[in-house]
Write a structure and sequence with these properties.
Strand order of the largest sheet: 5-4-1-8-9-10-11-12-13
Structural class: alpha/beta
Largest sheet: 9 strands, mixed
Shape: globular
Strand content: 15-25%
Distance between the termini: 17 Å
Length: 317
């Protein structure tokens, strides 16, 4: 895409919510008997519980803001979301296009993390049920279609395509709720398709396309690989991006959203895709080191220093 600036109008869709983050001092694998997966009944003793501000839209917008952009959020929030609105406004993230719903609670994510950083999570939709009543502003320069209510995501795709707004498409845990036709329509119009290796495999299976065929449908395909980094592909080139090194691994929740923000902070400035991927790697480790998804903080100077420490390159930020 053409080079953007921090003053460009970046719209972030997705969820807004409260994250209920729990730690299990064991391994899920030790509790699951493969021969009994048809009849699961699991219970975990939790030794830590924290409730934090989160949601896919909140997480991405927050880290983009740290990297010099001023995004606006399109989403829905409930009658208990005053703390989230106050938090966003205090970080100069526009809440103008957030639908406030007095008859719903704000969405909530419940996640348990084991000692191998595996996670089991669920999301209570709450006010997100009304996300389809929101719209992408027509003057948006770039949109992020992060996972939220499937009906809303389909609407956002149509709006972006109608108004020729480039967008990143991230169906994630909603893939099963889309038809093959809906996925194909969204992917063919996207500037970027992103998902983890499981999600990208599921997409290919659902739309009945090979990897080579998928690369012909979208200009940029990003596959995140957790602690092993990421892979960024175009029809003619592939970049294998190593992970940045965290100082600790307190909580992996939100690392994927932070990666997206880091990548986009470079992409929207017209940086080389490899540099963008490295920025994603560095961005993601900041949230891994803190409980919660928007509890980390850094300056651009800090970020540039850490980028150089990890990749032995100067970041032109």
């Amino acid at each position: 895409m053409s080079k953007s600036t921090p003053h460009s109008k970046i719209t972030i869709t997705g969820t807004i919510g409260h994250d209920n983050i729990m730690n299990f001092a064991g391994k899920f694998a030790d509790r699951i008997m493969p021969e009994m997966v048809h009849q699961l009944s699991l219970s975990f003793l939790i030794d830590e519980l924290r409730t934090e501000i989160g949601g896919t839209a909140t997480n991405i917008a927050y880290s983009l803001n740290l990297l010099g952009h001023k995004p606006q959020i399109v989403s829905a929030i409930g009658n208990d979301g005053a703390d989230i609105l106050e938090f966003l406004e205090s970080h100069h993230i526009s809440t103008t296009h957030i639908l406030q719903t007095p008859n719903h609670k704000t969405g909530a994510y419940f996640v348990i993390t084991d000692t191998d950083n595996n996670q089991i999570g669920s999301f209570y939709t709450g006010a997100t049920q009304r996300a389809a009543e929101t719209s992408i502003p027509k003057d948006t320069d770039f949109a992020v279609l992060a996972p939220t209510l499937p009906e809303a995501m389909n609407k956002y795709v149509k709006e972006c395509q109608k108004h020729k707004i480039p967008y990143l498409y991230d169906p994630a845990f909603q893939i099963d709720h889309f038809s093959a036709k809906e996925l194909l329509t969204a992917i063919k119009g996207a500037a970027i398709l992103i998902g983890n290796d499981y999600e990208i495999s599921l997409i290919k299976q659902k739309i009945a396309k090979s990897h080579t065929e998928l690369l012909k449908l979208v200009p940029i395909l990003i596959t995140t690989l957790g602690s092993e980094g990421s892979k960024i592909e175009t029809a003619t080139k592939q970049h294998i991006i190593p992970p940045a090194k965290p100082k600790n691994t307190t909580d992996p929740t939100g690392a994927g959203d932070a990666f997206r923000a880091g990548f986009l902070a470079g992409y929207l400035r017209g940086f080389d895709l490899e540099i963008c991927g490295m920025m994603g790697s560095v961005s993601s480790v900041y949230t891994v080191e803190k409980y919660g998804t928007v509890t980390h903080s850094y300056t651009i100077s800090d970020f540039k220093k850490r980028f150089q420490e990890n990749f032995n390159k100067k970041l032109p930020l």
